[in-house]
Specification:
Layout: E1 4-8, E2 11-13, E3 16-18, H1 21-29, E4 33-37, H2 43-52, E5 55-58, H3 82-98, E6 102-105, H4 107-115, E7 119-121, E8 146-150, E9 163-166, E10 173-176, E11 181-187, E12 192-197, E13 203-206, H5 218-234
Parallel strand pairs: 1-4, 1-5, 5-6, 6-13
Antiparallel strand pairs: 2-3, 7-10, 8-9, 8-11, 11-12, 12-13
Length: 247
């Protein structure tokens, strides 16, 4: 039986919630059944999501509201949506308590970090030393932009080569690493490109967009294969608490 992968809604556009097709196709291609999880303020929905899905995918999207990681607005770049951000962070905390497989992409990685007490730079221009441009302008989102160095003995070191080319579409990045997370890849300018849990079976965040690269990259294919396989083996056998943590 195929594992059910909950793909968390990216947010709202013209009063419609959405998830880009590339995420859905990625889950389907590698053997998962994608189910879209809408943003909601109903806490009972969190329980239903956790009960019905075997693994979870957090997608890219807009910037995160600075107040939710202890800061005030310091830049004019990037749209935010407080309710969507709060939903993502609260849901992330709850899903982490379930110890189910989770893959967090771009903004999703930043949500993972914030949910565990970490912070992000609101814009790369606020980081010193100044970083290279991480917002590529190529017409094809599958094009590689820069290289990353994968940390030895990390989960990702079993999936990627030590030196891997990735795409890049972000202007925010991790500042302070969240609790119980390890860095698993960095860019040449020191930007954190991937993180993972040091005590959960498969909780991985990547700053790039593998859902746009797997058709031309064997490494990105393997990332999704491992995620789907871990989700298939999870099968929701553990106890699931009835309420998410909303603190």
């Amino acid at each position: 039986m195929k594992p059910v992968i909950g793909i968390v809604s990216c947010g709202y556009m013209n009063q419609r919630q959405f998830v880009p097709q590339t995420y859905i196709e990625s889950v389907e291609h590698f053997g998962g059944t994608p189910v879209l999880l809408p943003c909601t303020q109903d806490e009972e929905a969190y329980y239903c999501y956790g009960r019905q899905c075997d693994g979870f995918l957090f997608c890219g999207g807009d910037d995160v509201t600075p107040l939710l990681f202890g800061e005030e607005l310091m830049t004019e770049r990037g749209a935010t949506d407080y309710q969507t951000d709060l939903f993502h962070i609260t849901l992330m905390k709850y899903l982490l308590s379930l110890k189910l497989p989770l893959l967090a992409i771009c903004r999703g990685m930043q949500i993972l970090n914030i949910a565990l007490g970490g912070t992000i730079y609101q814009d790369l221009s606020l980081r010193w030393p100044i970083s290279m441009n991480h917002m590529q302008l190529s017409s094809n989102r599958s094009d590689p932009c820069h290289r990353i160095t994968v940390i030895k003995d990390s989960i990702l070191s079993n999936i990627f080569k030590e030196n891997e080319a990735v795409n890049s579409f972000h202007h925010q990045c991790i500042r302070i690493l969240g609790a119980e997370l390890n860095i698993s890849a960095v860019a040449s300018d020191g930007i954190i490109e991937a993180i993972e849990s040091d005590h959960l079976p498969f909780v991985v965040g990547v700053q790039w967009h593998p859902e746009c690269m797997w058709k031309t990259s064997a490494s990105m294919q393997k990332l999704f294969q491992v995620f789907i396989e871990k989700s298939k083996n999870a099968k929701n056998l553990q106890y699931i608490s009835p309420k998410p943590r909303t603190e």
